[in-house]
Amino acid sequence: MLESAIIPFVKIAVALFVLVNPLEGIPIFMARGRGLDAAARLAAARTAAISVTVIMLVALFLGRFILAGLGISIGAFMVSGGLLIFLIGVRMVFGTQDATRAAAAASGDGSESFAIVPLAIPLLAGPGVISGMIVYATKGPYGTGSTPADYLILSGIVAVVGVATWLALRAADPLRRALGDTGIDVSTRVSGLIVTAIAVEMAYTGLLSLFPQLVVGAAAGG
Q: Which alpha helices (H) appear in 123-147, and where do they start and end?
């Protein structure tokens, strides 16, 4: 009983960590922070982690109300969010980068402002993470909506992901030396495979919400 109650939250925690993927931020953190001293680099890591946490919490608590105000159903958002996350996963697998983001990474300017843009958003807490937070908040861990206790646990998961992001960025130099460019690249590609699987499941659930007759048809066919 306890295991079945915990597993959905574990899946959400893993999904959010994979979507944020702090390792993916290390190359930009290294490139844009090369002109900073050690204290400034630590401050930039802290700023990025706090920004990621705040963005996720805003999406968690306010995202579904924004959808309601716009008249967008959760099923439609789950399908569009699934497609968006799928594209992000494909980009991770094939190692392609947005030209603007790549240019920003290569132009270290000695400022900590990069910790918010482009590091925190859109790289770490981008559209995929925001979409995922709104979906999880709306449907809840069990697909029946979120209770106050669920929100509390989800907030804790967000905080854990934020701390993990901070630790990863703080450890950028030793991680880079330990994993090397190849190791970081491999981990990002493997994470991309997991992201695409999560995206397919999200889009499938959204389709079932939009077209419940698919469930009836599947049951009749079985």
A: 127-139
Residue 142 is given by DSSP the state: T
Alpha carbons 66 and 148: distance in angstroms, whole number: 19
Mapping DSSP to helix (H, G, I), strand (E, B) and coil, where does residue 170 land?
helix
64: pLDDT strictly greater than 70? yes
Kind and range of the H or E run holding 34 = none
Tell me how crowded residue 113 is: count the other CB atoms within 10 A of its CB.
12
Query: How far, in Å, CA of 63 to CA of 124, rounded?
Result: 18
pLDDT of residue 198: 76
C-beta of residue 15 within 8 angstroms of C-beta of residue 198: yes
Query: Are 70 and 171 contacting, i.e. CB atoms less than 8 angstroms apart?
Result: no
Q: What is the largest CA-CA distance in the chain?
A: 65
pLDDT over 90 at 159, yes or no = yes
| Residue 161: predicted pLDDT | 95
Can you give the three-state secondary structure of 195-206, one letter per residue? HHHHHHHHHHHH
How far is it, in rounded angstroms, from Cα 160 to Cα 163?
5
Closest Cα partner for 157 from 145, 170, 141, 144? Answer: 141
**CB distance 29 to 176 below 8 Å:** no
Distances (CA, A) of 84 to 100, 132, 221: 19, 10, 31
Give the predicted TM-score (pTM) of the model.
0.70
Q: How confident is the model at residue 88 (pLDDT cuts 50, 70, 90)?
A: confident
